[in-house]
Amino acid sequence: MPVDELDTRILRLLLEQPRTSVREYARTLGIARGTLQARLDRLERDGVITGTAPALSPAALGHPVLAFVHIEVTQGHLDEVGDALAAVPEIVEAFSITGGGDLLARVVARDNAHLEDTVQKLISMPGVVRTRTEVALRERVSHRMLPLVESIGRLTRG
Predict the structure, then answer these.
(1) Closest CA to 125 of 157, 87, 84
(2) What's the predicted TM-score (pTM) here?
(3) I want to staple 109 with a disulfide (CB 3.0 to 4.6 A). Which of 41, 47, 65, 130 is the partner?
(4) Helix 5-16 to helix 33-45 angle, to the nearest 10 degrees?
(5) In this model, does residue 1 exceed pLDDT 70?
């Protein structure tokens, strides 16, 4: 089922006020708590809402260095390397990609030496042919969903 205008309003509230109660969301939206709960359940079931965990800052956890590591993999070993990446705590995300490389990993580190050690760990994994690392200098647009939700909301109204 597509996301409609009410779903968009619900999602906007969840993003803007993530620690508010369901009862307060329902009051703010002017709908019954049961209606809101049914919508939330459907949005979760449909995979629109994928979690409720807090967003954590790797920098505040002592890992201020952010890098993107492109990983080239020996043909036929993508799944094995992907599984091995999951065992490296400094890898906070990894994706199969097209283009220059087979995998792209978002890596955090305490400092440049720690980043180098982490990259060396990746290079030594069976199935990894080579890596290419790009260090992020400054975040220009932080992870966000609200502009996308608002854009979808405009499409459903228009």
Answers:
(1) 84
(2) 0.86
(3) 65
(4) 90
(5) no
